[in-house]
Design brief:
The protein is mostly beta strands. It contains two helices and five strands; from the N terminus they run αβββββα.
Length: 94
């Protein structure tokens, strides 16, 4: 499994993961590194970096993301309102 996961470094995958409590979850992750039976990744469900045990991964599948969605996920959310000027016409249209 470690060799298989090495080819996903730098990519997004979907995994079926068996948690320490015995529960199964489906996760979308961005694989950062694979070493010593562990995967360091960004977990989109938790919205945080996470470490997964290779032995607890039951299935893995490459996850393809459209470029526009990928850009949205990489942007940090802002709490500011838009400062774009609003276009108004001089004379109202009836």
């Amino acid at each position: 499994m470690e060799k298989q996961m090495l080819r996903y470094v730098g990519r997004m995958v979907e995994i079926i993961y068996l948690g320490n409590d015995g529960s199964m979850t489906q996760r979308r992750i961005a694989v950062r590194s694979v070493e010593r039976g562990r995967i360091k990744a960004f977990c989109f469900q938790r919205q945080a970096p996470w470490v997964f045990k290779l032995e607890n991964i039951l299935a893995v599948q490459h996850f393809v993301v459209a470029m526009s969605i990928r850009k949205q996920m990489q942007q940090k959310p802002e709490n500011k309102k838009s400062t774009r000027p609003i276009k108004t016409s001089a004379t109202p249209k009836y």
